[in-house]
Amino acid sequence: MATSRTDPLTLEVVELIGTVVARYYEEYDEAAAAHSLTGAQARVLGLLSLEPMPMRRIAQKLKCEPSNVTGIVDRLETRGLVERRPDPADRRVKLAAPTELGARTAQQLRDSLTFAREPLAELSDEDRTMLRDLLRRMLGEPGPSAG
Fold first, then answer.
1. Which stretch of DSSP H or E encloses residue 92?
2. Which has the closest alpha carbon to 139: 17, 6, 2?
3. pTM, rounded to two decimals
4. How many distinct structural domains can be found in the chain?
5. What's the rounded Cα separation, in Å, for the pair 83 and 76?
6. Name one GO molecular function term (predicted).
């Protein structure tokens, strides 16, 4: 019979994980609002500022539906922050890419973030590696030394 994992330590760890996630999104939403963007629009713009990509890939990275991403990109395009262009590797595929204004806005957003820009700033490389490996185990993903 499995033992219940509702001991105080487990509850505290779960609560802390939730607080980290909530703080990240709250700060991102505040920074986005300063640019009259939603948090989701800001996250898409930030992702595209790293590299242009098709809607499906944006959806995979943000773990949401491609139809939602299409709507977000449409609104960013209307604001002149994003444009659609053919993928040079496959002209049938459209890439979403930031305009010059979009790239500047993404940089301003990043610059205005503190915790959300670098939520692991207080952790050493060793701590980050340990946290990554623990989170992977929590999610049932193989560790780096599997095999």
1. strand 90-98
2. 17
3. 0.76
4. 1
5. 8
6. DNA-binding transcription factor activity
